[in-house]
Amino acid sequence: MEKYKNRDWLYDQYWNKEKPISQIAKECSCGNTTIYRWMIKFDIPRRTQSESQTKHWDELLYGQKHKIIKKLKPKPSKRMCELCNQVYDQYHKKKLDLMNIDHQYKEDLKDWKYAHRSCHVKYDFDNDLRIITKEHKNNISNAKLGNKAWNKGLTKETDERVRRYGEKLSKIHKEISKKRIRDKNGCFV
Hints:
Blueprint: H1 7-16, H2 21-28, H3 32-41, H4 49-52, H5 62-72, E1 96-100, E2 112-116, H6 117-126, H7 134-145, H8 156-179
Antiparallel strand pairs: 1-2
C-alpha cells in the first residue's frame, strides 16, 4: 500500500513536518493531484498561502533573509552608518545597506548592521570576508593610475574599421534610394 493512502502519515507529513504537497508527491513517486485528492478524501485541511510559504531560516535565500531582517531591524533614526558613525561616506553618499557582519547570515539581529556600501566593502576586505583576485587587483591599480579599464575605448584599428563600415553602409543606402521610383508627389513607391 502506498504511504499517502494512510491518513495519519499524510497528515503528519503535511502539518507536522510542514512539507509542501509537491515534496510529498515527489517522495511517493506520484503527482501533486494524487496527494491533493487523498487529502480531500481524508478531510485534511489545506494550509493558507501565508502558512505554506513559511520556511525555516536555513531554507531562506540570501535576499529573503535580508528582507525579513529589514522588517525586524529598522534603519538607524539619524541615518548614520553603524561602522563609521557618519551620515555621508567618503564619496558623499548617504544610502545605507543592510549587511551581515560575519557572512553567516544568522537570525540574530546583533549580527546585522546598516552601513554605507563603501564601508561595507572595506569591512569585508579588512576581515577577509571577500576574496580579491589578481585580476581584480590589476583593475583597481590601473584605475588608480588613471589607465583605461580593459573594456573602455576602442583601438585605432577597430575605430577605423567601424568608420569604413559606416561609409560603406551610407553608400549602399544612397544607391538604393536613387533606384527607387518616386510618384508625382515626390514620395517613394
